[in-house]
Specification:
The chain has two domains: 256 residues, Aldehyde Dehydrogenase, Chain A, domain 1; 182 residues, Aldehyde Dehydrogenase, Chain A, domain 2, CATH 3.40.309. Helix 4 packs parallel to helix 5. It has 459 residues and is of the alpha/beta class. The longest helix has 21 residues. The chain starts with a strand and ends with a strand. The protein has 14 helices and 20 strands. 51% of the residues are buried. A seven-stranded mixed β-sheet has the order 12-13-14-11-10-16-17, sandwiched between helices. It has a six-stranded mixed β-sheet with strand order 7-6-5-8-9-19, sandwiched between helices. The chain binds succinic acid. Succinic acid binds next to loops. It holds the Pfam family Aldedh. InterPro entries: Ald_DH/histidinol_DH, Ald_DH_C, Ald_DH_CS_CYS, Ald_DH_CS_GLU, Ald_DH_N, Aldehyde_DH_dom, Aldehyde_DH_Superfamily. Belongs to the aldehyde dehydrogenase family.
Amino acid sequence: MNKLEIKNPATNKVIEKLNFTEENDINSKIDNAYKTFLSWRETDAHTRASILKEWSYLINEHREELAKIITLEGGKPLKESRGEIDYARSYIDWYAEEAKRLYGRTIPSNTENKRIITQKSPVGVVGAITPWNFPAAMITRKIAPALAAGCTIICKPAVATPLTTIKLIELAHKAGVPQNAVDYIIASGKDAGRIFTEHRKIAKLTFTGSTPIGKKLIKQSADTVKNITMELGGLAPVIVHKDADIDFAVEQTIAAKFRNAGQTCVCANRIYVHKEIEELFIEKLIAKVNKLNVGNGENSDVDIGPLIDQEGVNKVIDQIKDAQNHGGILSSDLNSLQYLGGNFLKPVVISNVNNDMKVMNEETFGPIAPVMSYTKLDDVIKLANDTEFGLAAYYFTNNYQTGLYLYENLDYGVIGWNDGLPSGAHVPFGGLKESGYGREGGKEGIEPYLETKYLSVGI
Ligand code: SIN
């Protein structure tokens, strides 16, 4: 049988081979998840919360092992992988508490002889499709609210990084989550998308990934009217205004840009800097970027690991060449960016950028920081909003009027004002426009796993 080969992106060596899950087995898993749903939804919220807490505890006990798995299959530097495990656990801890707060309402009746109540009920079996860039956090941010709500869930991890999911789910079962309340399949995105969207026992589909795939899944979901959550692509702008603290803006821009080698949906894609501070900002940015250490993420001093694969590298190089051809100036020449070969790419700052370049219009998913200048705030807001994406945006200003004006006028779901890392389990994460819909995290993040049922009692 055809096997899935999982490769270490730092060495391109195969680290594991897995069997694909046969379609019949996927269907049985869905049937079993449905049967288990009927009992899991009856398990009281406090018990569900305790099991989730135990899962979080076990993940912490296996923190180092899990972090190494993330680094081996995803290339992420070990220190970031450890951070991802903590981030992943924070969703479980958060939703263990939220499980106990799924309140209904009592509604005053419009007649004397009726009483009206509402209740929050779990939607049913969830199909989850997750990406390779956060193989732990993107999965717990779906599993935790689903289980807390009383749903059961089947996960389809990215084919590049399934090992983290397998270990996390093994620990969930060890913690007491019933075997079929959370399960995984090994399948291509295409097959899983088709099976999940067609199957009538899957009530909800939750997807994190690219906008083109998200659009296909939305179309495919129409026939079975799935409840769907879509966390799709981004093209995050960073605006550094003339009154910003430049050193702080540089430090936070680096955090927003180079996390996971620039491979996140919320990564700073386009950097707009006010003309008056452009030169100083670029000088300071280049000085810091040159200090970032590129290499195999298993080494403790590495800041930037490999990109996920050669296709990812080629896309980034294409954007760099396009920028060069249109007058962009690189902080290091293209050959020196590729000095380590393979999937490694040194981070680079591109100055003298204009808005026609690919790097300002296409999601990069790589370590390039393109900087373009502006003079008028309204012009830069217009540029920032001139995209079909609306996931994350960042800006730096110490003037509260400018800050509020930007907040009110930027069409983005996640906004960081003097903050390059606004994500967290306690906040609603999600995009506007073609960046998707539904929120993950915060009290909003459990809502997509719940239906409101209403009862009218005649007395
Ligand atoms: C993503 O890549 O969309 C996830 C980033 C985050 O949770 O901060």
